Amino acid sequence: MATRTLRRRLRHGDVDGGRNEHMDASGLDALNEPLLGNYSYDEDHSEGYDHRSHEDIWDDKKKEQLHWTYLFSNLIAQWAQWLVNILLGSGSIIGRFLPLPSIIQNGQGNPICLSPLQEERLRYLRQRLEVPFDGSRVEHQDALKQLWRLAYPNREIPPLKSELWKEMGWQGSDPSTDFRGGGFISLENLIFFANNYPDSFQMLLKKQEGKRAEWEYPFAVAGINISFMLIQMLDLQSGMPTSKAGARFLELLGEDEKAFDNLYCVAFRMLDAQWLAKRASYMEFNEVLTSTRAQLERELALEDTTSIKDLPAYNMLNQ
User: Where is the ELMO domain (predicted)?
Assistant: First the structure.
């Protein structure tokens, strides 16, 4: 009777915990199929006698066991997360001295443990995200000057408000007005790009590759948009990243503390390649940025990716 009832509930898709791994267009979970798959059931069977073969009955029992095993494993994962939250809580004495891993869901419902190193690097990255750009701070002014020196090493640094900044791709004479939601990290990303991949940086800055549009994307402002796009794509402003791209990024962060900055450089190079391929112009920038994000998500999903340098698009930085 229990098996027959379970099968009837599965058929109508109302079993608790039977969440399908497929996602609908809105990104929300959708139960498109029963957890254990579709199979036939004869509604005319007598309650007193089951006409099915012993093999069918045994197969149903195995399916039921698999179902309860799945529910039990989910329950264990929830208990583990609850325990870790207690031990690592700010008010926990044990959590201050015992470095236990955190557990998150990887975007496919599977738990992932974060090592203390991953947690520390994620915490530091979040601290960077919280710093807004402030044109009145000397260190932020110095960072802008550093970017100019890297971009134009043989030219004198202009005043912080000058029409010359437009040559780098700022929208006005005062670069500080362009940061908005990008924050100080977007300026750090540009500086990292210039320091670590100077050839690619100069090529994109000066639009040296390919047949360009008459109305090109502004380099510096595009860089700020890429930083913001990555923050959203990797789900870095949530309590704990749970998107597929965000979960994979946390794995890469364990291998490379500069994973975000390196991914930024890959994304910028990829955006320019998409721009040329689409023969895009200024008004199509958002469309190109969206397609760049989609391509990055596909590459991050590759199973053999263990570092940012394993991404296929990383090779473009060395061209």
Answer: 139-300
